[in-house]
Amino acid sequence: MMSIRLIKIAVIYLAIGMSLGLYMGSVQDFLFRSVHAHINLLGWASIALAALVFHMFPELVRTRLATIWFWGYNIATPISLVLLAFEVSGRAWAGPLLGISMTVVWAMGLVFAANVLINLRGSQAVPAR
Ligand code: HEM
Fold it and tell me: Is residue 129 in some structural domain?
């Protein structure tokens, strides 16, 4: 169930990220290229990869670390992306807040890594269908 929710979240980022990329190209204004890159990479690519990892290794879903990661990452990432957009468009106040929220995203990356390193066992893989 977590994998399905994650894939749906990921494709929403994909749609937004690609649309921003196409818009940047069409108006030849690349101010938001870092926002575009991070929507696509933190949003689409990282979340879709996490979904596949959770699907392949369901034991990883039933952990406290997975729950912490799911909520922490999915709250801090969109906040960070909005703050990044404010920051690159010259709103200096966004800088420190961006630092805080991106630190949460980073911490959630460590939580995800810890979940894999602590709880993944070779025998748990779901056979390919
Ligand atoms: C319809 C799909 C997409 C379009 C139209 C698009 C368009 C663009 C454009 C116009 C740029 C700026 C190029 C420049 O600064 O000269 C860019 C940069 C970039 N894009 Fe995309 N993109 C798309 C999909 C993706 C996806 C799926 C990813 C990653 C999963 C991605 C990752 C990046 C990265 C890493 C950069 C470099 C950002 C930087 O230089 O700061 N893009 N893209």
Answer: no
